[in-house]
Design goal:
This protein has 2 helices and 28 strands. The strands form 7 sheets. The protein has a 4-stranded antiparallel beta sheet with strand order 3-2-1-28, with no helix packed on it. Strands 4-5-6-7 form a 4-stranded antiparallel beta sheet, with no helix packed on it. A 4-stranded antiparallel beta sheet has the order 8-9-10-11, with no helix packed on it. It has 389 residues and is mainly β.
């Protein structure tokens, strides 16, 4: 099924980004790498986080209740937290193996993605953010995670077990097309170039990355990381030139030049580097170190959060979890003052003060994972727990 016209559907924010970025560089075909041309001088003026500053809510997101949504992988439910009181105010069952709570491109819906299990299919559970309540459950083959095409025309469900990206109607979730990514076992997290021309996905079980032309539905290439390991979350620098990849086995963050698709550096952070979240001013990067190299690790590990300065690419601070812990995935609060992360193997939610590093713990369900903090600033969501633009 053909992609809808970008001219009709793409957001004003992405059009502005496209005007700033040289888009004439031809992407390479399928192969061992996906090199691009030299960076345009105009790229230096790009700031992919320009629309995601503190309290910069769109009219749609402004109608949502202020809530933290915690999907619990093993108890098959979602806990709802009031961030003002740090209290659990609701809890409801969802599809099996809930992994992430994903804001929709149009900011009107939150989707709980559920992985397929031995005795259950995958699922997508919609939540109305104006009420905080679930509305429907849709059965799919597998849904570890979900992203959106930059124009919002398609939801892209990450069917990790199948190594597929499923293009679905973003409202009905009817399947429209499938892109198979055979060289990416553990296909799971992604971020986009500033112009939306490509995305880089992490391949958890091959120690590598996949570069994807999402709109054109093509694999542009694969990159095996020098350290191998288990790449997890991925985020771009404010100028969009560098992709930061948390490598759980290497205990740090890999630096990847997006256009040339090559490694350019490494930043040690802590044991089990896992989640990556930019600060509201776009100057810092918060990296959750899960405290374990094991999938299904023990509680009370040497978990911590590292704060990387984008300008220097150095760790400025590290906040250990008091008593040990397992910080995993989440996001930054609307005003940027709190970082909310699941405590994966400790069955808690962490509320971390981004000024002092003080940490509060809120008991939740069994094995919390991809926490959504809502509402978020930005014009639209590209997926995961809030890759906002």
């Amino acid at each position: 099924m053909p992609i809808r016209s970008l001219a009709r559907r793409i957001s004003p924010l992405l059009l502005a980004g496209m005007a700033l970025v040289a888009c004439t560089r031809a992407a390479s075909g399928n192969g061992g790498s996906a090199a691009g041309g030299a960076a345009s001088p105009a790229q230096s003026t790009v700031n992919v986080y320009a629309a995601t500053g503190a309290n910069n809510l769109s009219p749609t997101a402004a109608t949502a209740l202020a809530r933290i949504y915690v999907p619990n992988l093993k108890s098959n439910d979602v806990y709802v937290i009031d961030p003002a009181t740090l209290k659990v105010i609701d809890r409801y069952p969802v599809g099996a193996n809930p992994q992430h709570v994903v804001p929709s491109w149009d900011l009107k819906t939150l989707w709980v993605t559920g992985s397929a299990g031995k005795h259950s299919p995958g699922s997508l559970t919609s939540i109305d953010p104006t009420t905080g309540k679930p509305t429907r459950v849709i059965s799919v083959d597998d849904a570890y995670n979900m992203y959106f095409t930059p124009d919002g025309a398609y939801a892209v469900v990450v069917a990790e077990e199948l190594k597929n990206l499923e293009y679905r109607d973003p409202q009905t979730m009817d399947l429209k097309a499938t892109l198979h990514v055979p060289g990416c076992p553990g296909l799971n997290h992604a971020d986009y170039s500033p112009d939306g021309r490509y995305a880089i996905f992490t391949c958890e079980f091959s120690g590598g990355l996949a570069k994807i032309d999402v709109m054109g539905r093509k694999v542009l290439g694969y990159l095996r990381l020098a350290k191998g390991g288990m790449p997890q979350d991925i985020r771009t620098s404010p100028d969009g030139k560098t992709f930061y990849v948390a490598n759980m086995m290497a205990d740090g963050v890999e630096l990847i030049d997006g256009d040339s698709f090559k490694e350019i550096g490494f930043i040690p952070t802590g044991t089990g580097a896992h989640g990556i979240y930019p600060s509201r001013d776009g100057k810092k990067l918060y990296v959750s170190n899960r405290g374990s190299h094991v999938v299904g690790g023990p509680p009370h590990g040497p978990g911590s959060v590292s704060v990387i300065d984008f300008a220097s690419n150095k760790v400025e601070q590290t906040w250990p979890i008091p008593g040990g812990g397992s910080p995993d995935m989440g996001n930054v609060s609307l005003d940027g003052k709190m970082l909310w992360l699941s405590g994966r193997y400790d069955n808690v939610l962490y509320a971390i003060d981004t000024t002092t590093g003080h940490i509060d713990k809120i008991p939740v369900g069994h094995e919390p994972h991809g926490v959504a903090v809502w509402p978020q600033p930005g014009a639209h969501s590209l997926g995961h727990t809030g890759v906002m633009r």
